[in-house]
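Researcher: I'd like a structural prediction for the single chain below. Treat it as a standalone chain; there are no partners to consider.
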Amino acid sequence: MFFAAFPMRSIINKDAEFAYGSGNLNPSKAVNPGLVYGSEEADYIKFLCGQGYDNRILRLVTGDNASCSEATNGRVWDLNYPSFALYATPLKTIS
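Model: Treating it as a single chain, here is the predicted structure.
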């Protein structure tokens, strides 16, 4: 529920942009949260499959019989969630 959080200020915290996080939860704002990112369980399954999760690990996370296939192999930028992502090949230097 990061969308119902109090804003943090970089003036107070010397870490500036790295200090923001989700803020402190404000339960009274949960009734009318404002901006909401519409994501469902299937979206997260596609994301995890695209990140290389195998069926065994995926089922540990979901608690059901979810599985990865061509249809569920998503890309990191397909998840409707405010974030930054960088694709990196294992053991290859990024410059």
